[in-house]
Amino acid sequence: MDIDVGPVDPSVLYEQDLHVSSAIWEAQERGLLRCQEHTSLLHQWKLTPQQTNLVDKAGFGLFRKIGPMTLNNSLISALVERWRRETNTFHLPLGETTITLDEVSIILGLDIDGDPVVGPKVGDEAALETCGRLLGKLPSAANKEVNCSRVKLNWLKRTFSECPEDASDEVVKCHTRAYLLYLIGSTIFATTDGDKVSVKYLPLFEDFERAGRFAWGAAALACLYRALGNASLKSQSNICGCLTLLQCWSYFHLDIGRPERSEASFPLALLWKGKGNRSKTDLSEYRRELDDLDPSKITWCPYERYESMIPPHVKAELSLGRSKTTLVCFEKIEMHFPDRCLRQFGKRQPIPQKVKRRDRKNRRLDDLDTSMTQACEEWGERGDHIVDSPNVVGDDGAYMEWYARISITKLYREAFLENQVMNMIACMREFEEAASGISMERLSPVEREVMESVKDTFSSNLTFGGWQEVAVNSSYGKRRRRNEQTPTMSNNGGGGGSDLSSLLFQKDT
């Protein structure tokens, strides 16, 4: 059955035909997404004090404290269904919301202000040369430890997870680079092709102080945006990127599947450390909860209570959360649209500007180079594009009216469509049966004519499009309790039948 679920105005969500919601409404469930984040073995790395110092210089001193996080696949899958890559935002019943740059810094402790994470591509031969030069050891192609310029995370852990006590400074640096490559490959730059990480990131750690000047948080968000966009397509079954960030963001903002908090510490992802669970709640239940989301279940500004815990150097960057800019991570270029989610900054939400359509097909290499140059220039101007809105209490009526036309906020097909329609049909059948049981003898000609019209109306609507057969054969036809009788009107006008009759013939006086 073809169902036109909208949006009424397709100018914003112009890729609806590709989105997973279009498949959900056609009862084509893809099931849970396979979550590709490989943090479970991070705790097996043993860092020396010298290595820890180098990790701090590279910009990952806070981030490394988070470690493994248990993921709730059902919740993540439900959130992905609300993500729209046209706007890089979640479309919820109360409006748009998203993961902003400042939240990356607060939740993960990664820098969001700095140089873009870019570099040259690394071919297969160059990958081996790079490993030999910066790691001091070569992965074996014969043992499938390296393939297409990607090395296996397992090889990195097996070879470098424990640095010898008497290691030279150069060996310590090699082991630390291996750890950092493993860390980003299993978290912020995790991919869908299993436990591998691209060697292209390794040269970024050649100089640890230089590495500390990159905006790793912005790059992490670019990768997560891209991963969410890809996973929101109905053809996809996996999701990668920093899913710890996605899940913690949800815990802060949405009271859905949220566990109890741990003792507060920074970065704030540690609030949920060890609190994640492989929830028994299934995807359809989370989908329904998001459909029914009300203001009491969403917190627009959840970090105010933790302000005293945020380090000064992190606070200095937080204004970039409102920067309408371009996020870059190598070939990944994604737009950051805080102007669509100003309530997350305690501001009133006006109708946002139109989003330029992106041509995602047939991009030639020279076009990509041109886009990369432009993207890096826009990132360089990030401080000049801080968006704002009047900090006053206003009526969101105009925004919500616009939002209702351009978005799709209901995805729980079983409840919203089948349950509602079939329950309505079952009720109509009960009324038809009740009307058929009413005696026509004592009715006046006008009342008799009205009753016949009512019965014909019910009958024609119940048989239209084959719905009568569905209603009879479905479980919804068994709504009546076992011993419950269909009410009828007795000749003496008493009992439940007379009440039903009076309702059927009730007129305005």
Give an overview in words.
- By secondary structure, this protein is mostly helical.
- It is built from 18 helices and ten strands.
- Strand 5 and strand 6 form a beta hairpin.
- Helix 2 crosses helix 7 (169-186).
- The protein is elongated and about 105 Å long.
- The model is unreliable at 464-509 (pLDDT under 50).
What percentage of residues falls in helices of 4 or more residues?
25-40%
The count of DSSP E runs of length 2 or more, i.e. the number of strands, is 10
Strand content: 5-15%
The spatial strand order of the largest sheet comes to 2-3-4
Poorly predicted segments: 464-509
**Broad structural category:** mainly alpha
Descriptive tags:
509 residues, mainly alpha, 3-stranded antiparallel beta sheet, disordered C terminus
Present the secondary structure layout:
Blueprint: H1 20-24, E1 34-35, H2 49-57, H3 73-80, E2 83-84, E3 89-92, E4 95-97, H4 101-108, H5 124-134, E5 146-147, E6 150-152, H6 153-160, H7 169-186, E7 196-198, H8 208-211, H9 216-231, E8 238-239, H10 243-253, H11 283-291, H12 312-315, E9 325-329, E10 332-336, H13 365-380, H14 397-406, H15 413-436, H16 445-463, H17 467-473, H18 495-504
